[in-house]
Amino acid sequence: MINANDVLFSRAIRRKGLAAVTAMSALLAPTGMPAAFAADQAAAPIPVDCATIRYHVAEHGKAKSIAWAIKNGYSWAQIAEAKRCLRG
Q: Do residues 53 and 84 lie in contact, with contact meaning Cβ atoms separated by under 8 Å?
């Protein structure tokens, strides 16, 4: 059988833990922690010229090329721009 005091006590512990995490994040946020996380993120992909796009699409196919672009961080706007290269 569950005792009401045990339930209240466990909620109080969880609340204190959440408060501690919130306080730590509030203290660390202005000290440059976001810069440390930003360093782990991949850099923006390098733009590719139309000749290279045409060559690789001819070699691998359109669907595989789009999947590769998405996997490597290209945006849908960049993929649409690359599709314009294929039109001529």
A: no
